């Protein structure tokens, strides 16, 4: 009886989430136009619900898909709070691809990235399976470490300053699993992937910010201390929850997390008189308890976010009042740094010229972006090009080059102006 009651409740209270697929050429990071994308329930992959085609920016239209009720992701319950869909992609000149288990939450835009390989004689087929979310499935708990690594050991600290890396080398398995593959992942993409795998994107923005800051600080501690390289390994971090965070190859990213990572990506957490980013460990607070260790719990951070706590207030509630948000000294792999002010109509100079030239390069790969006159003067033509760029990449369409827009332009410029030799 309880089973049928539960089934009826799900049928009567179905919510919807938004969903979009982006298809890129793996060889050069450029969009694949006219790719045919079929979407079905993961449990019934041959029963197609939607069939759409990518545009010149490699994106499908945003569609609405059914999800479980919103409240399932707001409290720790036994019911799965997200729907799982399978995506099948075909494009002329490329190997077909399938992604199973792509997650859709209610009231949030889920973006599923897909990169395609050029087809070779004797067609092959790539299938990616996204495993369950960490809050819904039991993964190995984190093995406790000191949050600050010793600095008096030879070779332990090798970097002179905190730098946001261009890439993270992710070992997709436990530390000693020599058969696990290493992936070169852009830093922000890595953080977005982990956050989408470890918290629910339906949570309050400040809860998401607190968790993103903890993930970034932990990651930058691994980078700054070269933790694994100093132990003889050739990677930055693992995908094992026992050692690091859950990173999932090929998974979808949620727009609320995407936006907040772009807002915060230069930040990390620090304590007074400690140079290195803090190794901010945490647990879910339901399946694994860790509050007594002074760690943040994810469900606890959700409760505080519901009560109106800011991100730093949430973090200090768990890690102590001497925790601060700091900013990295540099961003590696970026052509030139953020000017420190928004670029808008009437602005002029080298920073405007840089943006204009970068937009024109991007337009070669994304023809929807209008080409502009590179004269160093921010006029209506440049503003319109920026506005179109923002629309393509999910930013607020103000036509103003603010902090998130600046670094998104840098990211896409770097991606399309050279072959990603690390992939």
Termini, distance in Å?
A: 52 Å
Given as residue ranges, the uncertain stretches (5+ residues, pLDDT < 50) are: 1-10, 152-158, 419-423
Record the strand order, biggest sheet.
3-2-5-6-8
How many domain modules?
3
Mean pLDDT: 91
Rg, Cα atoms, Å: 22 Å
Broad shape? globular
Summarize the helix and strand pattern as letters: HEEEEEEEEEEEHHEEHEEEHHEEHHH
Structural class: alpha/beta
How many individual β-strands? 18
What is the helix tally? 9
Helicity level: 25-40%
Protein name: Peptidoglycan-binding protein
Organism: Blautia luti DSM 14534 = JCM 17040
Would you kindly provide a written description of the structure presented here, covering whatever features stand out?
With 423 residues, the chain is of the alpha/beta class. Helix content is 27%, strand content 20%. The chain has nine helices and 18 strands. It has helices at residues 2-12, 187-198, 205-225, 255-264, 298-306, 311-319, 350-365, 380-392, 403-417; strands at 15-25, 36-41, 48-53, 63-67, 83-90, 97-104, 109-116, 126-129, 163-164, 167-171, 182-186, 237-238, 253-254, 267-270, 282-283, 296-297, 324-327, 330-331. The strands form six sheets. It has a five-stranded mixed β-sheet, with no helix packed on it. A four-stranded mixed β-sheet has the order 4-1-7-13. Helix 2 packs across helix 3 (205-225) and helix 7 crosses helix 9. It holds the Pfam family PG_binding_1. InterPro entries: Peptidoglycan-bd-like, PGBD-like_sf, PGBDSf. This is Peptidoglycan-binding protein. Residues 348-408 form the Peptidoglycan binding-like domain.
